[in-house]
Amino acid sequence: MVTMRAEGKCRGLVHKIGGPGQVSCICRYGIPATAHVRRSSLWTFNGDAWGRPGHVPSSVVPNANEDTPSALSQVPHRAASESLRVAPVAEDLARRFQEAGFSLALVGGSVRDALLGRLGNDLDFTTDARPEDVLKIVRPWADAVWEVGIAFGTVGAQKDGYQIEVTTYRSEAYDRTSRKPEVSYGDSIEEDLVRRDFTVNAMAVALPERKFIDPHGGLDDLAARVLRTPGTPEASFSDDPLRMMRAARFAAQLDFEVAPEVVAAMKDMAGRIEIVSAERVRDELNKLILSAHPRKGLTLLVDSGIADHVLPELPALRLERDEHHRHKDVYDHTLIVLEQAIELEEDGPDLTLRLAALLHDIGKPRTRRFEEDGRVSFHHHEVVGAKMTKKRMTALKYSNELVKDVSHLVELHLRFHGYGTGEWTDSAVRRYVRDAGPLLDRLHKLTRSDCTTRNKRKAAALSRAYDGLEERIAQLQEQEELDSIRPDLDGNQIMEILGVGPGPAVGRAYKQMLELRLENGPMGHDAAVAALKEWWAEQD
C-alpha cells in the first residue's frame, strides 16, 4: 500500500518517494489539504496503481478544464512509477555514482515526460561529479560512451538500449559578443535547477533514494499546462537567448500556454536571439516544425518578433493578401497549408514536406502586382520563392540535399495549376514526373495541401483534377516505367552510331533523345536510331 498525507499549502518542497509498497509522500506542492480530502487527510493507494517496472502510465497531468486536485495529488507517485521503469539502468548507475562519492538525479525533460506518461529511452541525469569523474564511472559500465558535449559538462552513453546523458551541475550564460555559452560548474542540484529554462524542466528525482525535488513549482505549472521560468524570464533569456525559441517549441510540442510575463520578455528581448549560432537556431526550429502543434509555436515566434530575426520571410506574409481574396492573408493561408500537409503524412513527421509547406509562398511579397481590374497577382512567385528558400535555408546551415529538395518543391508547387481539367498531354505528364523525380510523392501532398479555398465546389473540382492526374501518372508508370525515364539510346550507343568520342556533342544528343522520349514515349531502337541520325544531320 502507498500512504500519502496532505499537510497544508506550500509550493515547491521536497517529496519523499520510497520503493514499491513502501512509498510515503508528504504532499506539500501547492494544493491545500482540504482540496485533497473529504473526510480525512490520509490517502491510500494500491502500489500497482502507480505503475510496475516496464509499465508506462497514461498522462497523469489533469485536463486544464477539469477541477481534479485529487488527480494532481497522485503525481509524485507517478514520477516514482516512471523511475521504477528505468530502475535496472538508472538505479545501477546511481549506485555507481554513490559508491564513488557523488550524487545522481534524473532531471529536466526526463522527469517532465515521466509525469506526462511519455518517458522514452532518452534519459537525462545531473550530478555533482566533474566530467572527468563521470567518464571514470561510466566507461566501465556503458555499452558505448561519447564525449561530444564534454566541453559543456555533458557525457553521453548508451546502456541496454537507453540513450543517456550525464551533465555536471552547471550554470551557463552568454557573453554579448559570443555565440557560445560560457559554462561554469556548480555544487548543488538547487543551483543547477535554477539555471534551467522552464519550471516544468526544473524538477528532479534523486537516485537511488527516489526523492522528488521541485524547488520552483514545476509540478503546479505542469498541471496548469503553462510555461514559466524558474527566475525572471529576463534573466533566463539573457543567460541563453535560445530559450525564447524553446518556449515556442515546448508550446508546440506539449500544447502548453506560455505565461504572459514570459511572452512579454520574449517581445522585449527578441533581438537578443541574433547572438545564437545559426546551427542552434536551426535545430530548435526543426523541433518546433516537427512537433504536434507547429502552428502554435510559429505563431508565438511571429507575434513575439523573434521570427523577424530567424525566419523573416514568415512574418512578411502577414502583409500580403493572396490572389483569391479568400484568406485573411497569405500568412494564415501558409499555416493552413502546413496543417493540411501534416494531415497527409503517412510515416511520421516529414521535415522536407513541412518546410516546403511553410516556405512555399514566401516569394509572394516580392512579386505582388496590383492589376487594372483590382486583382492582386504574384506571377512567378514560385521561382522567386525557390531562390529565397535556398538563401534562407543556407543561412540556417541546412544540408545541401535538404536545401535542394525543399527549394525544388517550392519551385514546382504551382505546376499542377496548368493541368486544368486534364488538358495535359502524356508528354506534359511525363515531364511533371521527370521534374519531380524522387520528390513526386511529396509534391502530390504539397499540391493538395495548397488548396485552402472556402468554396467547396472549387475545392472538390481541384481534388478531382488532381485525382485524375495521379491516375494518369499511375497508368503511364505501369506502361513506361516513368520513375526511371531514360532515352531509348544511351551514351555509348550514341557515340557508336554517330562515330564520335566523349564530349559536348554526346551530351547534346543525349538531351535531344530524352526530349523525344518525353514527347513520344518509348520509340523502339530502330526509330530512335533514325531520329538521332536525322537530328545529327541538321547540326552544323
Percent helix among the residues? 40-55%
State the helix count.
26
Strand content: 5-15%
Beta-strand segment tally: 17
Mean pLDDT: 79
Tertiary shape: elongated
Report how far the terminal alpha carbons are from each other: 95 Å
Detail the poorly predicted runs.
1-70
Q: Roughly how many Å is the radius of gyration?
A: 30 Å
Describe the biggest sheet?
Answer: 8 strands, mixed
Structural class given helices, strands, pairing?
Answer: alpha+beta
Organism: Streptomyces pseudovenezuelae
Pfam family, one: PolyA_pol_RNAbd
EC number: 2.7.7.19
InterPro entries: Bact_CCA-adding_enz_type3_sf (IPR050264), HD/PDEase_dom (IPR003607), HD_domain (IPR006674), HDIG_dom (IPR006675), NT_sf (IPR043519), PolA_pol_head_dom (IPR002646), PolyA_RNA-bd (IPR032828), tRNA_adenylyltransferase (IPR014065)
SSE inventory with pairings:
Elements: E1 2-6, E2 15-16, E3 24-27, H1 33-36, E4 42-45, H2 69-73, H3 75-85, H4 87-99, E5 104-107, H5 109-115, E6 122-127, H6 131-138, E7 144-146, E8 154-159, E9 162-168, E10 170-174, E11 181-185, H7 189-194, E12 204-207, E13 211-213, H8 218-224, E14 226-227, H9 233-239, H10 242-254, E15 257-258, H11 260-269, H12 278-289, H13 294-304, H14 307-310, H15 313-316, H16 330-344, H17 351-359, H18 364-367, E16 369-370, E17 376-377, H19 381-395, H20 400-412, H21 426-436, H22 440-449, H23 456-480, H24 491-498, H25 504-520, H26 525-537
Parallel strand pairs: 1-3, 6-9, 14-15
Antiparallel strand pairs: 1-4, 2-13, 5-6, 5-12, 7-8, 8-9, 10-11, 12-13, 16-17
Protein name: Poly(A) polymerase
EC number: 2.7.7.19
Keywords: Magnesium, Metal-binding, Nucleotide-binding, Nucleotidyltransferase, Transferase, tRNA processing
